[in-house]
Amino acid sequence: MIRSELIQKLSDENPHLYQRDVERIVNAVFEEIIEAMASGNRVELRGFGAFSVKQRDARTGRNPRTGESVAVEEKHVPFFKAGKLLRDRLNGDA
C-alpha cells in the first residue's frame, strides 16, 4: 500500500472527513515519526511496532565489480521491529 492508497482508504472509511483533512493527518503522523527519529528518539506504536535508528560504524567495503577496497562512512539507518500483535496477525494466530 502506498501513501495515496492509505489516504483514500481512510477517507472512504470516514465519510464525515474531507480527503484533504485525512491527507493532512496522515502527513502529520509520518512527519512526527520522521522528526522523532531524526532526533534519535524511538517511536513505538502499540500493537504495530517500533521505529528506531541504528548506527552502523565506518568500515572498509569492497567494490563488487573491481574488488577494490572502498571506505564506507559511519551512517544511521532506520530500523523497524514489528510488535507482537502484528506478528501474530501475519502468522494467522489472531
Automatic annotation (TrEMBL):
Pfam families, from UniProt? Bac_DNA_binding
Q: Which UniProt key words apply to this protein? A: DNA recombination, DNA-binding, Transcription, Transcription regulation, Translation regulation
Gene3D superfamilies this protein is in? IHF-like DNA-binding proteins
Give GO cellular component annotations, separated by semicolons.
chromosome; cytosol
Biological process according to GO: DNA recombination; regulation of DNA-templated transcription; regulation of translation
Cite the GO molecular-function annotations of the record.
DNA binding; structural constituent of chromatin
CDD domains attached here? IHF_B
InterPro entries in the record: Hist_DNA-bd, Histone-like_DNA-bd_CS, IHF-like_DNA-bd_dom_sf, IHF_beta
The family classification in the record reads: Belongs to the bacterial histone-like protein family.
Its quaternary organisation is: Heterodimer of an alpha and a beta chain.
* Function field: This protein is one of the two subunits of integration host factor, a specific DNA-binding protein that functions in genetic recombination as well as in transcriptional and translational control.
The protein in question is named: Integration host factor subunit beta
